[in-house]
Amino acid sequence: MKGLLGVAAIGLAGLLLVGCGGVTAPVVPPTGVIFTSVKAPLDVQFNKTELGSKMGMASSTSILGFAFGDASTMAAARNGQLKVINAADYQTTSFLLGIYASYTTIVYGD
User: Fold this and answer.
1) Exposure letters 78-105 (e unless 16+ CB within 10 A, then b)
2) Which of 8, 39, 48, 76 has the CB geometry, 3.0–4.6 Å to 58, for a possible disulfide?
3) φ/ψ (deg, to 5) at 20
4) Residues near 109 by Cβ (< 8 Å), separated by ≥ 6?
């Protein structure tokens, strides 16, 4: 019985930790267990990228497993009053295995 409880506890911990690696992008910087604050590109077409004269940002946040916000590309473009998006980055911050986490989409264009 103790062995079964141990296996169940390990399985549950594994399921909970699977959600911690939620960022999937072309470039994924290293993340920390205690604290993470990184910025990276969302696109990989750097050959002739011109950022443009405007920038827009949109964010979402998670606190104790409750997530809220709109970090979509459309929201970022709307917030920066962009009609054309030339490039996109993201910034992510997390604290203590995701007790607090934020994700920001940053778009550049005109």
Assistant:
1) ebbebeebbbbbbebbbeeebeebbbbb
2) 76
3) -75, -20
4) 51, 52, 54, 77, 80, 82, 83, 84, 85, 86, 87
Residue pLDDT, tens place only, 59-104: 999 999 899 999 999 999 999 999 999 999 999 999 988 899 999 9
DSSP summary character for residue 19: G
Q: What is the pTM of this model?
A: 0.73
User: What is the distance between the alpha carbons of residues 20 and 99, in angstroms, rounded to a whole number?
Assistant: 10
Q: How many CA atoms lie within 13 A of 26 on its CB side?
A: 9
Bridge partners of 81, per DSSP, are none
pLDDT score recorded for residue 50:
79
Measured between alpha carbons, how far is 80 from 24 in angstroms, rounded to an integer?
Answer: 24
Lookup: tokens for 24: 């999937």
Number of domains in the chain: 1
The answer to the question of residue 61 being in a domain is: yes
Helix (H, G, I), strand (E, B) or coil at 103: strand
